[in-house]
Amino acid sequence: MGQISDYAIATLGSHTALQILKGAKDEGFKTICVCQKDQARVYESYGVADELIVIDSYDQYFGVEHRLLDQKAIMIPHGSFVSYLGWERVQDIEVMHYGSKGILEWESDRVKEREWLKAAGLKLPRIFKTPEEIDCPVIIKFHGAKGGKGYFIANTTEEFYERIKDYPGEEGYVIQEYIVGVPIYSHFFYSPINDELEIMSFDKRYESNADSIGRIASKDQLDANIRTSYTITGNIPIVIRESLLPKVFEMGDNVIRESRKLTNFKDGKPLTKGLYGSFCLEAIVDPELNFNVFEISARIVAGTNPYTNGSPYTWLRYNEPMSTGRRIARDIKQAIESDRLEEVLG
Ligand code: ATP
Predict the structure, then answer these.
(1) Is the per-residue pLDDT at 271 higher than 60?
(2) Atom of ligand 1 lying closest to residue 179 CA
(3) pLDDT (tens digit, 9 = 90+) per residue, 316-340?
(4) Whose Cα sits closest to atom 19 in ligand 1?
(5) Does ligand 1 lie within 6 Å of residue 142's CB atom?
(6) Cβ(147) to ligand 1 under 6 A?
(7) Residue 193, Cα to own-chain centre: how many angstroms?
(8) Same domain, 108 and 135
(9) Which of the residues 76, 127, 177, 317 could staple to 11 if both were Cys, CB 3.0 to 4.6 A apart?
(10) What's residue 99's pLDDT?
(11) Model-wide pTM > 0.90
(12) Are 328 and 255 found together in one domain?
């Protein structure tokens, strides 16, 4: 039987590193945090890392990777990990990687992601191929816009052309139906070890200035010529109507099933094992209670951060504090102890 003392759990110091490292420690693992100099204080202060590897910038990651290999570290990827390295370079990391690397290509590409979600039978906002087709409020999303900063809303074709003038040179964008409803981000965990899907928690984002525009009168909004931006500043926990839970389970089951049919290859070898571990479906729920899913994140999301000590849902199931970070560590622990580690590495 494998032993967890032979391994360490590592992540980059950002995003969800605090709960990942704390969760791994709670499960008995040695923990390593690779972080930039300007972030080190956080990980020192909370004492979640047994070892800190400090680098000037994430570009230097490959220069220190050997230290992780020496300790048989298992890397837990999170949003910043994928965005700092890019999904292509993630394929090159040598250290053991929790989760399917191949799936990252599908979630990083809007067209591929849509194909996947459609195949899973989810309701998606409509996409307009040309501005001439606009027949309802739309949200224009620029490729590579970080944190929803450059997005804008238009109601008609004319308005689209008027507003796009403010973004000269921007060609890569998608015109998506704007759904009037509330954002709900559903956090899941699927373990290949026990073949079970769990709903871990829900959140919504706290975005500037989208969440502050309503604090001033509409006349003042117009006079000040304020543009909506969705820069994320934090996450707010949500508990949803209990009667919506079957729908959420169903959506999770369907994306897992379809993920097993996605294929991509590197050097002739298949990369994708299908989706497992932590993932999130990002949706706008309309008054008819449809989940209009506009994005999937195939790894731990920052919306799980309010639940370092567990969520109302994990409390029901575990009766002990169970963050998503800790759930990941437990999956790895059970995999090691049953000699099935390969099944959770990608
Ligand atoms: P990520 O960092 O997760 O890729 P992002 O910065 O690309 O996100 P989105 O998450 O796509 O941005 O969206 C930013 C904001 O716009 C969110 O508040 C989301 O709720 C809202 N939003 C996105 N798509 C729609 C839509 N089709 N209808 C209504 N609101 C939307």
Answers:
(1) no
(2) 28
(3) 999 999 999 999 999 999 999 999 9
(4) 183
(5) no
(6) yes
(7) 22
(8) no
(9) 76
(10) 93
(11) yes
(12) yes
Would you state the pLDDT for residue 193? 94
**Dihedral through CA 334, CA 339, CA 340, CA 344, nearest 10?**
60
139 alpha carbon to ligand 1 midpoint, in Å? 9
Alpha helices in the chain (DSSP H): 17-26, 40-46, 61-70, 79-90, 103-108, 110-119, 157-164, 218-223, 245-259, 312-318, 324-337
Q: How far is the CA of 294 from the centre of ligand 1 (A)?
A: 7
The 10s digit of each residue's pLDDT in 172-201 is: 899 999 999 999 999 999 999 999 999 999
CA–centroid distance, residue 87 to ligand 1 (Å): 20
Summary mean pLDDT of the chain: 93
Tokens 């139906």 -> residue: 177
Q: Residue 310 sits in which domain range? A: 4-119+181-206+236-344
Which numbered atom of ligand 1 lies nearest the CA of 301?
3
CATH of the domain at 151: 3.30.1490.20
Ligand 1 atom nearest to CA at 297:
3
Neighbour-count burial of 115, counting CB atoms closer than 10 A to its CB (0-12 exposed, 13-18 middle, 19+ buried): middle
Residue at 214 is within a domain? no
Q: Are residues 72 and 143 in the same domain?
A: no
> Whose alpha carbon is nearest atom 13 of ligand 1?
148
Q: Are residues 283 and 144 in the same domain?
A: no
CA of 205 to the centre of ligand 1 (A): 10
User: 52-66, 261-275, 276-290, 301-315: lowest mean pLDDT where?
Assistant: 261-275
Do residue 152 and residue 76 come from a single domain? no
Task: Report CA(283)–ligand 1 centroid distance (Å).
Answer: 9
| pLDDT tier, 89 (very low <50, low <70, confident <90, very high otherwise) | confident
Q: Which residues, other chains included, contact 316 with Cβ-Cβ below 8 Å and sequence gap of 6+?
A: none
Phi/psi at 302 (5° precision): -65, -15
Binding site membership of 206 for ligand 1 (Cβ less than 6 Å) = no
Count structural domains, the chain: 2
